[in-house]
Amino acid sequence: MEKNYGVLSGFTNGAAGFKRGLKSGAAVLLAMSFLVVGCSSDEPGAGDESPSPSPIATPAATPAPTPEATPTPTPEPTPTPRPSVPMGAPVIEDESVFVDFEDGTLMGFDVRGTESEREAGTGVLSLSSDVARSGSYSLLITERRRDWNGPAIEIAPYVEVGRLYTVSFWVHAKSPDLSAFRLSTQTGDGTDGGRAWNNMISDLPIGVDDGWVEMSFEYSWDIQSATITVYIENDNPDAEYYVDDFSLIPVGLIPANPGNPGNPGDPANPANPGDPANPGNPASGEWDKLTQPVPYARRMGEIDDFHYELWSERRDPERDTYIMQLTGGGTFTCEWSGLNILFRTGKRLGSTMPYADYGVISIEYAATHNITRGDVSYLTAYGWTQNPLVEWYVVENHGRYKPPGGAGYRGDITIDGARYEVYTDTRVDKPSIEGTRTFTQVFSVRAEGTTSGKITLSDHFKAWEGFGIDMSGNMYEVAMCIEGWNSAGTGSIDKYILTIGNSVYGTSR
Asked: Which residues are known catalytic residues?
């Protein structure tokens, strides 16, 4: 039996591991001393004519000092020898990367960590013929010491920044019977003190009886790095598992509009001045409707100075559908049916400063938002802060369900001439940009819904602080988002002007 699982968004490691050590004992030597005393009779012997002299007392023996026990030193853990299996390299075909472990090498895989971490012992990789998804061999990892130890492959030489890729691993649990797996990507190797990682699938339970399970995600790396790895972790440091049939396949945008040059005329020919009413339009891209039977998908990248992300949790892979068309300058159209999904475009700010250091943060927008089935969908400004971790919403329009469900009301505020109700909620052990975490959600919910206007986000953040909500964290992103949950509908962002301090981004279409 095989199972397929796609991506559930997340960011950093969440499960805690434990250290396995060696036990040693120290023998304690007990020294014993004895007191020896001489003795004689104190009565005169029979027939003696004179008294017997008094016996000379034997002095008591001085006890010898008890020697200190010498403790047996605790041996240092012996680092696990590096594997003798040749490293090898993956197979490259038409810009795609494939690994099946059939050539007798690790085909580019290694245990995750810096070289010094690996030398200290982060696990042992070997080829195994016990089980294989295809061919005769798979990769087996044993002797892990931490939850983050796992098989990893370097993909930086094969990745083009800004291009979309599908990453797929097949995993088979060996022991224990059931444990939680994570699929992640990391940029940077930590040798210069810098590395960042995203948990793309967090805490997916896989049992031995599940057989081979596919874990996959779609991603666009938006920074250039000499080191980019993808890897499989497990929250149980003692877990052993197999990996097979890794692939990295470029997807890219499907051109939906090749563009129209219009009629610019011929500057060298005064008889052909062109047509100012026909300036043409730029090319744009479109997301295809995904039909592969995976319950999660995540697509991220950058276009026209805007970051975009499509995150979905599919509930019925046979019926759930969605499409997102990027139309330039942060604008987009979308439609969905049946699943939990977020379409968003905006700026990822890198979590370097709190909102107050940016100055005014605002969005001017025009949108459409039509719910054709179900109750739960929002048109919202959206983002996160880190340290502390806060997920925030400024909801401009919603269905019959008003987030976050009525609880956690903090009070009313008036910003940009509109009244908003402020709510908070605590999410316990839920997916986040840092993986599975407990964090605060904050909502400003517009009392009268709208699909156009201005949102001065920095004023909302300041007002939330007046309710005692901690907004001192560093800004991770600012975005416009259309979200749906177990519903169907269509939407678009048609005008999008994002102001962050002195910088202005966006356009109208």
From this structure: 391, 483
